[in-house]
Amino acid sequence: MTATWLEAAINGPWSRSRQQLMPISAAECIADGIACAREGAAIIHVHAYDADTGRQNDDPETYARIIEGIRAVADVIVYPTLPLTVTSAAFDPKAATDRFAAVEFLCRRGLLEWAVVDPGSLNLTTFADVEAGRMGPIYLNPEAHIRAGLELAEQYGFAPSYAIYEPGFTRLGAALARRYPKLPEPIYRFMFTTHFTFGYPPEPFALAAHLALLEREAPNAKWMAAGLGVDIIPLIPDVIAAGGHVRVGLEDAPLGTDITNAEWVSRAARAIAASGGQLASAAEVRLALARPIK
User: What is the layout of strands, in order, in the sheet containing 187-192?
Assistant: First the structure.
């Protein structure tokens, strides 16, 4: 059985008003990243914040400080998010370049192994929004942005991390990946949810549907189970049985959870072991991805 990758997404875009235990400052992110690594995470995903305002700022120097701080203690893969785009400014001719500015900065510093490239757009409406008569935002990823990310991945050799919110993300992501012959193999991260109205709930039928499409569009691709506003741990036995990987943490967890990042990772690690899986090291993850798609 292939060793299982365990990723910790330690904060996300929520702010402490919605996820009270998430780390904000660089020092907090470093401490949480190290704690997650000690519990078995080989991959850490992080959003950079301004510690004074508590608002996400995606500052490249902050990302560099977090990545270097975690990796000074633990050999793990650490990667940033992209600035969230929810307005028509996403279609500005310079928007794609601006959005990936921190990614390119980190690549030039030799710090980036993975990066987010989300192959599609969607409505981020919650069931509570619908009940209250509110309209949720639209998460915009114009094709120009997707291509810009893949071009950087090909140029610098980092692995694109595809968040698969809807099945069409798999189809577009796979089709675009085939256009870049030197691109490292994308990772397809299936985004389950119970809080939002996108995609699928974390149930076996949904995982089977994702996998059937992935096998058609990108045979033998690496994939993970994750989500937003969801507890993915009950699905872990099915994920391990199907040869997949896992992401947990305060970005993905139900909003308002009182479980820390380290405990989410510990619970996932125990579920993986109970399902017959063995945790992969960062070195094993890197080795598994050290080949271009064909």
Answer: 77-80, 43-46, 6-9, 245-248, 222-227, 187-192, 159-164, 114-116
What is the pTM for the complete model shown? 0.96
Place of tokens 């995903």: 45
pLDDT score, position 1: 67
Nearest by Cα to 64 from 110, 97, 25: 110
Dihedral sign for Cα atoms in the order 141, 70, 284, 43: negative
The number of beta carbons lying within 10 Å of the beta carbon of residue 180 is 18
Cβ pair 14, 251 in contact under 8 A: yes
CB 72 within 8 A of CB 37: no
Q: How far is CA 39 from CA 7, 33, 253, in A?
A: 11, 10, 17
* Structural fold of domain 6-288: TIM Barrel (3.20.20)
Distance CA 236, CA 245 (A): 9
- State the Cα–Cα distance between residues 275 and 240, nearest whole angstrom: 7
Phi-psi label, residue 94: left if phi above 0, alpha if psi -120 to 50, beta otherwise: alpha
Listed as own residue / partner, the contacts of 69-72 with beta carbons closer than 8 Å and 24 or more positions apart are 69/26, 69/27, 69/29, 69/30, 69/33, 70/29, 70/30, 70/33, 70/34, 70/37, 70/44
pLDDT in tens, 98-118: 999 999 999 999 999 999 999
Q: How many CB atoms lie within 10 A of CB 155?
A: 13
pLDDT digit string, tens, across residues 228-287: 999 999 999 999 999 999 999 999 999 999 999 999 999 999 999 999 999 999 999 999
